[in-house]
Amino acid sequence: MFEVFKKLNWFFKHYWKRYLFAIIALIIASAIGLVPPKLIGYSIDHIQFETFTMQLLVSLILGYLVLLVVHYAISFLWDYTLFGGAVLLEKWIRSRLMDHFLKMTPMFFGKYRTGDLMARATNDLKAISLTAGFGVLTLVDSSIFMLMIVAVMGFTISWQLTLAALIPLPVMAVVMNKYGAAIHARFTKAQAAFGEMNNEVLESIRGVRVIRAFVQEKQDAIRFEKMTDDVYQKNIEVAKIDALFEPTMKILVGLSYTIGLGYGALLVFENKLTLGDLVTFNVYLGMLIWPMFAVGELINILQRGNASLDRVNQTLDYEADVKNAEKIIEVQHVDSLQLENVSFTYPSTKNNQLENIYLNVKRGQTIGVVGKTGAGKTTLFKLMLRQYAGMKGKFKISGVNLEEIRLEQIRSWIGYVPQDQMMFSKSIRENIQFGKSDATDKEIFRVMELAHFLDDMKQLPNGLDTEVGESGVTLSGGQKQRVALARAFIKDPEILILDDSMSAVDGKTEARIIEHLRKERKNKTTFIAAHRLSAVTHADHIIVLEDGRILEEGTHEGLIKLNGWYSEQYSQQQLEEGEVTN
């Protein structure tokens, strides 16, 4: 049951002073809370024996007021310190999760779906935070505070009466242990179901246009209703066990009260106990209700926290597929890129996506990468970005193996514009500044001119401050591509990769962007993958991929003379453009 505290040992070690102070303050506050019942019993005995005076009444009232003020101050301190620590734990783990997500490769995100990761970063973290706050409170109250009450009842009133009243406690321990095991298993299933529902919500929101276009609203609503019903049923299963805690505790507490009152009255009749002591004992027995309830709450919270922590740790323990090598070689400049017999297979497939690739690129060259859909163009770029492990052959930058260069260094050299552009739910200015955080408006306008986006800017309501909406929903496909291009241009990278990133713009706009690129990147390396071959005719070297192999390579003029796939495709595209123009 207490495994969750062992798993959080790293956090408690770091903040042990905070938690030690909170626990000591909590114990002191609890001890102060034990004084008033004694004062009540003391007063009743004086009233019974007619020795109660005005001076005694004033002293008791003043004593109560002092205890009230001191108890309030100490209670504030332990509450602030303890629950502040719980917030720190939640913040710390959330930061660790975010750092972990940013280090992960596509393999990780293929295994864990976005909705499930969101559930772990929200619901599960709340359950862990509750363990570090309310869990510690219930632990102290169900152990130390309970023992303090029992000790005061036994030593100052009657051990016989105390032991008799506590007979139901062993029964409670057995029952609560069974409830706790059931809570752990059911809560784990409920959290997993919530993660699946999150995934469905995300996919439905992202694909709302497709859902509407195919008139699938009803089917999607039915599917979502089934998932919410599944989440509901699993949470009901948790609630059924949760609901058993309180009535079970009330029955056991009721038994303690019955024993305490009945046996206590007998002791009063036998003059072994005063009336004041019996009243004090029953007040203490009433105070014992919360610690007894706390036992149930503790088991409930710890089991939920343990289940959630296991889910979060499972995510954090996932090792990145691509890591920095133990020995890093520093490379100052990108003078060349060499691919020697490079082959690659995705972990989930058996066939090679790239096979026996040889390529030698010098600084300042523009390389065109063309081929049919699925030929391996994007895969080649992903290897360059080191998104996957398991590459065979040698991939070198300035004569140094890619694996021996720091990941952060490689990615700082590269400006990547993928096929599917990612727009952040911010303004156009902020989206472009993602490539260079301190970019001025002058620099932004310059790269927007390179991306041929200035004319579109005039149509936007707030210019650079126009919010693009979630995933750039307010922009057209061509506009998103050009904003993404501007974001890459402003970085002014050593290596620029354009992965079919102008497919949504017209031929004239593409030609102007390419012309701007030729002027701006004379001494920088550029890779352009495209289906429209006019985008690569100016390239220094063009490779044609087919089934992961280089089918043809050379300059545009050389490939035309080969009369192969490139020549045939180029002629067909030129013919189609001519027909469109006519």
From TrEMBL:
It is a multi-pass membrane protein. Its main location: membrane. Gene3D superfamilies: ABC transporter type 1, transmembrane domain, P-loop containing nucleotide triphosphate hydrolases. InterPro entries: AAA+_ATPase, ABC1_TM_dom, ABC1_TM_sf, ABC_transporter-like_ATP-bd, ABC_transporter-like_CS, P-loop_NTPase, Type_1_exporter. The chain crosses the membrane at residues 20-40, 52-70, 127-151, 157-176, 251-269, 281-302. Pfam families: ABC_membrane (PF00664), ABC_tran (PF00005). Residues 20-304 form the ABC transmembrane type-1 domain. Keywords: ATP-binding, Membrane, Nucleotide-binding, Transmembrane, Transmembrane helix. It is found in: Cell membrane. CDD domains: ABC_6TM_TmrB_like. Residues 337-572 form the ABC transporter domain. SUPFAM superfamilies: ABC transporter transmembrane region, P-loop containing nucleoside triphosphate hydrolases. PANTHER family: ATP-BINDING CASSETTE SUB-FAMILY B MEMBER 10, MITOCHONDRIAL, ATP-DEPENDENT PERMEASE MDL1, MITOCHONDRIAL. This is ABC transporter transmembrane domain-containing protein.
